[in-house]
Amino acid sequence: MCLSIPAKVLEINGEVAKVTLGGTEYNASLQLVEDVKIGDYVLIHTGFAIQKLSEKEAQETLKLFNEFEELNKQLDEEEEKTGKRIA
Amino acid sequence: MKFIDEFRNKEKAKKIVRAIENISTKEIKLMEVCGGHTMSIQKFGIPSLLPPQIELLSGPGCPVCVTDRKYIDQAIAYARLDNVIITTFGDLIRVPGSSSSLDNEKAKGRSIKIVYSILDALKIAKENPTKKVIFLAIGFETTVPGTAAGVITAAKENVDNFYVFSSHKVMPPAMNALIDEGVKINGYIGPGHVSTITGTGIYSGLAENFNVGCVISGFEPLDLLQSIYMLVKQFEEKNPKVEIQYKRAVKVEGNIKAKEMMYDVFEYRDDWWRGLGTLANSGLGISKKYAKFDAERKFDVEVEKTKEDKGCICGEILKGLKSPKDCSLFANVCDPSNPVGACMVSNEGACHAFYKYNRE
Ligand code: SF4
Ligand code: SF4
């Protein structure tokens, strides 16, 4: 029951936002959040926006995933040197 | 950036798995305490990607699952009152009570309406001024602020036929209780959406008192794998702490505005959890200030004596001690179309998720 889903804010009328979620439009209350603007992504939970999503932080997390890529490369190189399968 | 697809890349997933294999040397048990995580973990087949020494346990994370049978019985008693409309989230309606369910009562002609939001319930109250509208409020910290906003709105707009029957619960006492009870857990996959509201402070006792780390995780496969990596790393380095993987949604301080509204409308009380029993200060009741919206203060009903089903092991499953496949009723007597226990009702319930994605 309590899944929360990212949705994009299309319109803001007072304390209500029109948001879109995979093409479907909903109204969501903005009573619980501050400083939401058109174009922002918010998490929607039981009809309320509960938090603004940060694009900057999302990019940072994606960058961390690239570090795993680096690590894999290192493991590959080690494997080549030693001839042993690593992890 | 759509905040979904970016976190679902298969190639990247494989690379994180390899990194996990590379650092993991010891047996480790990690528990997720959010039904949303339970569902994602099953859906994306995460356990089968992990090396065998890493075991994932499902905890008491689905609000439908942990809700007391007595609560359902009391809601049914309210539904049988004259001139009452019960409004509820869809999942609750099929949870078995001691001798009936809300679904059953609805079939018998009681007025029970499914809503998506408390604001819909409030609307129903305004449209039916001669009726009393009771909203069944369940859920953890993610859901509580919404209920609070609904009550505050009702107060502002002087809606005087609107009541809330709260079974709201808070997560940390359950997380502590499991460890206290001796369930072996080496790290928690922290509930992402609860934490958007609470922030990280509520988990600090885990590392300090129990040596158990907690990584607050997002819900996509890469999120979960990265969180598992972080927990394994903490464990191998003997450095348990609270970390946020789900940084795009969770801030250290949480959602301050939502928290303020939550503590305006609610106050702590002891509460009963399926599987865990009564936990001190683990539930939220309506505060004195908003007493006139409290269904429990307003309606006096006779509630039948609680009867639990024989054979259902939901309680053990919620503690991570047993798996759905250990239940003799699983997939023969009990399935999503005929749930015997609460864990089979909600999409986020361990038995339901297991039934859907992992039956063989
Ligand atoms: S989103 Fe929150 S309330 Fe829903 S299952 Fe997860 S932790 Fe529980
Ligand atoms: S399978 Fe059904 S009866 Fe068994 S524990 Fe799960 S919900 Fe209860």
Describe the structure.
The complex is a heterodimer of chains A (87) and B (360). Chain A is an alpha+beta fold and 87 residues long. Chain A is rod-shaped. The two termini of chain A are 38 Å apart. Chain A is built from 1 helix and 5 strands. The model of chain A has no long low-confidence stretch (mean pLDDT 87). Helix content of chain A is 32%, strand content 36%. With 360 residues, chain B is an alpha/beta fold. In chain B, 38% of the residues lie in helices and 17% in strands. Chain B has 16 helices and 12 strands. Chain B is globular. The interface between A and B is large, with 36 and 58 residues.
Count every helix of chain A, treating DSSP H or I runs of 4 or more residues as helices: 1
- As laid out across the biggest beta sheet of chain B, the strand order is 2-1-8-9-10
Low-confidence stretches of chain B: none
Helix and strand element order of chain B: HEHHEHHEHEHEHEEHEHHEHEHEEHHH
Based on secondary structure, the structural category of chain B is: alpha/beta
- Overall pLDDT of chain B: 92
| End-to-end CA span of chain B | 37 Å
Radius of gyration of chain A equals 20 Å
Low-confidence stretches of chain A: none
The strand order across the widest sheet of chain A is: 3-2-1-4-5
Write the layout of secondary structure elements.
The complex is a heterodimer of chains A (87) and B (360).
Chain A: E1 5-13, E2 16-21, E3 24-29, E4 41-45, E5 48-52, H1 55-82
Antiparallel strand pairs in A: 1-2, 1-4, 2-3, 4-5
Chain B: H1 10-23, E1 28-32, H2 35-43, H3 46-49, E2 54-58, H4 63-66, H5 69-79, E3 84-88, H6 102-107, E4 112-114, H7 118-127, E5 132-137, H8 144-156, E6 162-166, E7 168-169, H9 172-180, E8 187-190, H10 192-198, H11 204-210, E9 213-216, H12 221-236, E10 242-244, H13 256-265, E11 266-273, E12 277-286, H14 295-298, H15 314-318, H16 350-357
Parallel strand pairs in B: 1-2, 1-8, 3-4, 3-5, 5-6, 8-9, 9-10
Antiparallel strand pairs in B: 7-12, 11-12
Helix pairs in contact in B: 1-12, 2-16, 8-13
The complex binds iron/sulfur cluster (2 copies).
One iron/sulfur cluster is lined by residues 312-314, 317, 324, 327, 329-330, 334, 339-341, 343-344, 351 of chain B.
